[in-house]
Structure formats: structure tokens, C-alpha cells
Design a protein that fits this description.
With 175 residues, the chain is mostly beta strands. 14% of the residues lie in helices and 41% in strands. The protein is built from two helices and nine strands; from the N terminus they run αβββββαββββ. Strands 2-9-8-4-6 form a five-stranded mixed beta sheet. Strands 1-3-7-5 form a four-stranded antiparallel beta sheet. A hairpin with a 6-residue loop joins strand 8 and strand 9. The chain is elongated and about 50 Å long. The N and C termini lie far apart (63 Å).
Length: 175
């Protein structure tokens, strides 16, 4: 019985500590976190860390010639100031994927993201940068075809520390 009380107290303390740190479960010095948002929805991926985008995915449907716009936030969830490197998929045949360094307007960073990676610059713990991903289905792209865009943030100091989100866009029929 005494062990159960200690475990219950330890669990309660862990929950309280998690709430005080914004739910951050890992007090590692280097911890990238990537979140994804569609207009009119809530973020997915906050404080979820993996390289596959599992539980960090948003889905949208477009007609051929149309585009989906995903908003990403790349954050430093670690305890040390650091820069993150962002990489992402290019468009497959029938798709155009563009990356921008702001949610509206901003500079086109597509070549850097799909190449060696785009650097966020130094981020203090808890700080982040916004990225817009536009996924356009070329005219004539068949209904039902989809484009999966995996975007990964990597710690510059610890390249083994990564987090990814997925944007899945599917061509829908008109009407």
C-alpha cells in the first residue's frame, strides 16, 4: 500500500510539473517541436515529438488547380538557445509545394527547405518561427491523388533531435 501512495504522489508531482512547464515532458537542452495548423482549426503536434508526423498531421482537400495552405510553427522546446534546421518535401508529379518564412507574405524559402534546409536563426527556449506551406494540385491532377508533405525540424546542436509534421492534400471532385 505504501508503494502505491508513493507512486500516486510521484504521478501527481509529474502532472503538476508538466502543467508548470507548459506540458513539456522533456527538459532536454535541445528539443525541436513542430506544430501544424489549417485555417479555422487548432494546432496539432504541440509537445508531441517524432520523426514521422504521427499524431501531428492535418488533411485538406482541393480541386485540381487549387491549393491548400498549411501554417507551421517551429519551436525550441529545449532549455538552451539554439537554431533549428527545417527540411521538407518537394512536390511530386502533378503537385507544386512552396514554403514561405511567414504565415502571410514573407520570403520564398522553398529552395532552402527542399535542399539542405532553412535555418530559423537563434531561438530562445519557448520561442519559434512561422512557416507557410502551400500545396497546389496542378490542373488535370486526377481526383483521389494525394500529396504527403513531411516537414522536419532538426536541432543544429544535436541532429539526432528531430520533430516532424505532415500535411496531406487530396484532389477532390468539383461540387
Amino acid at each position: 500500500m505504501r508503494g502505491l501512495k508513493l507512486n500516486a504522489r510521484a504521478s501527481t508531482l509529474a502532472l503538476i510539473c508538466g502543467a508548470l512547464t507548459g506540458g513539456q515532458r522533456d527538459a532536454a537542452p535541445y528539443r525541436p517541436d513542430t506544430l501544424i495548423l489549417l485555417y479555422g482549426t487548432t494546432y496539432r503536434g504541440d509537445n508531441i515529438y517524432n520523426r514521422t508526423g504521427a499524431h501531428q498531421t492535418k488533411f485538406d482537400r482541393v480541386i485540381a488547380g487549387g491549393k491548400a495552405v498549411y501554417r507551421l510553427r517551429v519551436e525550441n522546446d529545449g532549455t538552451a538557445t539554439e537554431a533549428l534546421r527545417v527540411t521538407g518535401a518537394a512536390g511530386a508529379q502533378g503537385w507544386i509545394v512552396m514554403y514561405y518564412n511567414a504565415w502571410t507574405g514573407g520570403g520564398n524559402i522553398t529552395e532552402r527547405v527542399t535542399g539542405g534546409g532553412w535555418g530559423t536563426g537563434l531561438l530562445a527556449p519557448g520561442m519559434g518561427r512561422e512557416i507557410r506551406v502551400e500545396v497546389r494540385a496542378a490542373p488535370g491532377t486526377p481526383v483521389g491523388l494525394n500529396q504527403v508533405v513531411l516537414v522536419t525540424a532538426t536541432s543544429v546542436h544535436r541532429p539526432d533531435k528531430q520533430d516532424a509534421v505532415r500535411a496531406v492534400t487530396t484532389v477532390a471532385s468539383v461540387g
